[in-house]
Backbone:
């Protein structure tokens, strides 16, 4: 495609403004002339060949074009009798260079980027018209029928629309018109508009009317026009565009959409916080602070700001952008409520939403898949619990006892009020791991088997893992366990201050259970911390005083002693439905220790929400056995129904089709 700009004329109605250069060199803003703006728009559109017809002050014009240092190749064609002919003859002079699809524009035309984008996007030949502007007295109007331009001229008032000489002409349509132009000129008909030739074609050139309504697309004929256009440009240049990004990798698709957005105004990029990204996708590889720097260094980005939630509301209210740009992928699906909110805020101040077709870039999908598999690697996975804790203050952990439950914890997302919620990690429970093997929770399942469960989970997931280490066993054994867990990529082990035959805490005092001494247990913690090789790994001390009814004082004394011994976190447990003793413990502990993470397993005291626990100062909430308790009754029920009916049909309605279950299982690419 080539651009053809008609710049031969005298521009005499501009007065002194054209006393030493052609009209197209008139300044329309402190940084631009009509021509420099047109040429920049042409270059931005990726068009490199520009044919310019010259005449009046042609030498000045040629020099000026070359001084602009744009990635354009110019062909200048002088109309030697520019003062005696109209531009039909300039086109005639340039005809040998015009054997291509053509963007044709008058040299005094100023249009905003959106107009040019529409022209370029048009599948057919087209001319810009406006259905909303009044018909001009003296300037061009187009007679439009069924969306097609039939005639163009200054005297057309019937079925007419305001029109501007900005065309896209596909090669075949252009050839029909150009042949007619040649015919006119060779018959000495050189003082008319090129459109006079077009009008004789009776629609054979097939030019669609492209309605640009109120967008700026205007010629500058005189100083009054110049004032109007300059003022409008000023308004256009003050426009802002807002986009939000969560990506930690910028690829070609992002650059393409950024470039498009920049054409609408000054581009403000909101970088989504780590927490918001993690809530709906995965933990970002690159923290928000670095992602901001990345975008700050993308050419043409005006400003980079934080966006702390998936909702755009805060930033839209603050920056009131003229446009919000987004891919059209949020029209349906979980992002729809966010889009609805954006639309309603934009409507409140007359802002506009611009959506571009969403491109599913394979390269990015590949990089993302690689990123995910990297996140599963022990060295990356291990440190993520500390990272998420720092980021969110409170993390939620769900029990997993095999690969499949691991996948459910990994992938279950609930979208709510424009937000997204998922679990931050997995709990490898001694109770559920033992139960899955049909064994009691008495440290009967040996460590090798427990590690095998961890491996089944780590093979198919990426989220951090907290391991239920029971009592930790003998200190001499515990130090080996620590290193094995580190190698497996586990983030934290929780050991409880019991000794002898451990029974599950939910039995409380119904069974004989012995609490370890503060000294012994502290020694075990110290030995574990000394044995650990990676800095991120965490040892959490679990206090059983409330379970064993030894009182709050004992619990608190132990908590501080275990922190003193090196515990990275403490877990306080209770089997009471009433949460008050746990709340009291948190209050007392936090009065003296503001930072050591507090872990809770609210199986019995389950009425308090995560938000309330966070407020009180808890940091890790473990849902320790709910998946196991959901699957057992479902399996029992299915077995009973089949036994009752001597066939499986009656059972079917409670079953998930296997093709849906298979979807949970990632395919190796
Ligand atoms: C487990 O899940 O194995 C636990 C938590 O240790 S609890 O069952 O509540 O003791
Ligand atoms: Mg346990």
Residues:
């Amino acid at each position: 495609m080539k651009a053809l700009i008609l710049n031969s004329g005298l521009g005499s109605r501009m007065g002194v403004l054209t006393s030493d250069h052609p009209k197209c060199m008139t300044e329309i803003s402190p940084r631009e002339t009509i021509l420099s703006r047109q040429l920049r728009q042409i270059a931005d559109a990726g068009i490199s060949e520009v044919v310019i017809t010259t005449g009046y002050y042609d030498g000045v014009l040629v020099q000026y074009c070359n001084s602009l240092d744009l990635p354009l190749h110019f062909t200048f064609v002088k109309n030697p009798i520019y003062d005696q002919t109209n531009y039909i003859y300039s086109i005639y002079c340039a005809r040998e260079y015009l054997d291509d699809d053509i963007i044709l524009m008058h040299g005094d035309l100023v249009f905003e980027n959106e107009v040019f984008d529409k022209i370029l996007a048009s599948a057919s030949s087209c001319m810009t018209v406006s259905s909303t502007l009044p018909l001009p007295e003296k300037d061009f109007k187009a007679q439009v029928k069924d969306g097609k331009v039939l005639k163009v001229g200054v005297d057309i008032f019937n079925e007419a629309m305001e029109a501007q000489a900005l065309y896209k002409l596909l090669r075949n349509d252009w050839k029909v018109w150009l042949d007619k132009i040649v015919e006119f000129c060779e018959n000495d008909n050189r003082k008319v508009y090129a459109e006079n030739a077009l009008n004789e074609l009776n629609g054979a050139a097939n030019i669609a009317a492209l309605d640009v309504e109120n967008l700026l697309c205007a010629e500058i004929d005189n100083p009054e026009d110049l004032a109007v256009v300059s003022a409008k440009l000023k308004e256009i240049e003050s426009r802002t565009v807002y986009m939000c990004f969560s990506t930690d990798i910028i690829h070609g698709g992002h650059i393409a959409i950024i470039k498009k957005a920049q054409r609408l105004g000054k581009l403000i990029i909101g970088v989504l916080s780590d927490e918001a990204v993690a809530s709906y996708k995965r933990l970002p590889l690159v923290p928000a602070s670095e992602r901001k720097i990345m975008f700050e260094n993308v050419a043409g980005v005006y400003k980079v700001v934080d966006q702390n939630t998936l909702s755009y509301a805060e930033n839209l209210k603050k920056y009131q952008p003229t446009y919000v740009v987004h891919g059209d992928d949020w029209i349906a699906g979980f992002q729809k409520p966010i889009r609805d909110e954006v639309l309603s805020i934009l409507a409140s101040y007359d802002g506009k939403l611009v959506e571009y077709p969403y491109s599913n870039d394979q390269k990015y999908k590949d990089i993302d898949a690689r990123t995910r598999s990297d996140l599963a690697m022990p060295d990356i996975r291990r440190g993520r619990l500390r990272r998420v804790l720092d980021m969110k203050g409170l993390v939620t952990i769900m029990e997993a006892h095999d690969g499949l439950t691991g996948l459910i914890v990994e992938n279950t997302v609930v979208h709510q009020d424009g937000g997204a919620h998922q679990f931050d990690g997995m709990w490898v429970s001694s109770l559920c791991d033992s139960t899955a093997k049909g064994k009691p929770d008495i440290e009967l399942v040996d460590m090798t088997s427990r590690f095998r469960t961890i491996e089944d989970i780590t093979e198919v997931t990426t989220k951090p893992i907290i391991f239920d280490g029971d009592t930790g066993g003998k200190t001499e054994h515990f130090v080996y366990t620590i290193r094995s867990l580190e190698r497996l990529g586990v983030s934290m082990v929780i050991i409880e201050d019991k000794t002898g035959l451990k029974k599950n805490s939910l039995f409380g005092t119904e069974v004989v259970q012995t609490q370890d001494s503060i000294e012994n247990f502290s020694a075990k913690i110290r030995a574990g911390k000394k044995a650990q090789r990676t800095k991120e790994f965490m040892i959490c001390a679990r206090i059983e005083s409330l379970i064993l009814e030894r009182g709050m004082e004992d619990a608190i004394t132990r908590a501080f002693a275990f922190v003193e011994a090196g515990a990275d976190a403490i877990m306080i447990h209770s089997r009471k439905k009433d949460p008050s003793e746990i709340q009291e413990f948190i209050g007392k502990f936090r009065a003296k220790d503001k930072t050591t993470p507090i872990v809770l397993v609210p199986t019995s005291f389950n009425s308090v929400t995560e938000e309330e626990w966070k407020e009180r100062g808890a940091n890790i909430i473990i849902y320790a056995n709910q998946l196991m308790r959901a699957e057992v009754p479902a399996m029992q029920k299915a077995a009973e129904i089949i036994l009752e009916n001597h066939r499986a049909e009656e059972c079917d309605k409670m079953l998930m089709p296997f093709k849906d279950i298979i979807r949970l299982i990632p395919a190796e690419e």
Remarks:
- The mean pLDDT is 93.
- Residues 429-431, 441, 468, 504-506, 601, 603, 624-625 surround sulfopyruvate (ligand 1) (CB under 6 Å).
- The CA atoms of residues 2 and 49 lie 5 Å apart.
